[in-house]
Amino acid sequence: MKKVYGNATEALDGLLRDDMLIAAGGFGLCGIPELLLEAIKESGVKDLTFASNNAGIDDFGIGILLQTRQVRKMLSSYVGENAEFMRQYLSGELELEFNPQGTLAERMRAGGAGIPGFYTKTGVGTQVAEGKEHKDFDGETYVLERGIFADLSIVKAWKADTTGNAIFRKTARNFNPPAAMCGKVCVMEVEEIVEPGELDPDHIHLPGIYVHRLIQGEHEKRIEQRTTRAA
User: Fold this and answer.
1) CA pseudo-torsion sign 7, 11, 17, 23
2) Whole-prediction pTM value?
């Protein structure tokens, strides 16, 4: 089965449509699938729902799709540094389903494991739990959260072999593994593709069974918040 494609547009060919749910890896600007997001923008698909911790910044990451009004809803933990995200949400132009970060990660992981729902104490007694089923276990109240089953997953890794076994670099691992797991199809971009056997099996973070298509590309290293001090 061919997994390696020439570029992001080729890798997404035949996978995109309006109104789909996309799970995206990354945290802030760390480990985001920037090449795939740009290709989604260029495709013109609209009314998308994204499950992602946040939406990058105004002109990078999912933020570029907010600018073009291609996103209808976000499942996120953090509005963050994206002023357009905040503006669209507060003005009612964008639907937003807030999720605690751990809950969002577990919803993705659960979807990847075929688990339709799970109970957690996180969010009980807050707006996060409104309208959701509650159940008591051993005298404690828990809220039911649904697993995320995405139409498409887009993630970024550091290295992968041609079968899709992947290694993420340090904190860029973040939401990428669970996001990759929960999609019907997973497309991954990497900084380097190697041959099978070149990666230590003990170092693999994501098995290739979850990855359907991958590309290698050049990536921009942006800093979300630059903090400096006088020498």
Assistant:
1) negative
2) 0.95
